Amino acid sequence: MLASLSVFSQKIDSIYFNLYTDSLKKGTYNYINVIGKLSNGTYRPLDSMKVIFTSSYGKFHGNSLLLPAEPAVEKVSITVTLKSNASQVLRRTLYIKKAEENHRLKTVDEIMAEPAGSLKRRKH
Question: Are 30 and 65 in contact (CB under 8 A)?
């Protein structure tokens, strides 16, 4: 508990998106990663305790934006505002992924049943 208090005893100088993707997935939660640069020069992840998340579509639950399975829009505008300094605002527009994700991961049994030498090695 003390470690988390000392981390944010530093002032947040600036905020940045650190997105894992360039598009949003429909029918699921999409984690929106925001990091803050602290006055001591270190970077820390920020959550809804430190920033306000809003969007033009969908609903935020903490840092995660929930989109319906059949969205009525092609893109979503996301705004993040630092609670301690409302002039620190990030805006980003992300498109919703159109292609269906039909690939299926192999089960443990399927992987274990493969011959030992069947892994393809990449040439360097």
Answer: yes
Domain boundaries defined on the chain = 2-99
Here the tokens at position 96 are: 């919703």
pTM over 0.85? The answer is: no
- Using CA atoms, how far apart are residues 123 and 24, in angstroms rounded to an integer? 33
- Tens-digit pLDDT profile for residues 68-94: 999 999 999 999 999 999 999 999 999
Record the tokens describing residue 24, joined without a space.
Answer: 């949003």
User: Does CATH number 1.10.940.10 belong to domain 2-99?
Assistant: no
Sheet with 12-17, strands from edge to edge, namely 12-17, 34-38, 43-46
- Dig out the tokens for 1 from the structure: 């508990």
> Which residues make Cβ contacts (< 8 Å) with residue 14, sequence separation at least 6?
36, 37, 88
Instruction: State how far the Cα of 108 lies from the Cα of 57, in Å rounded to an integer.
Output: 38
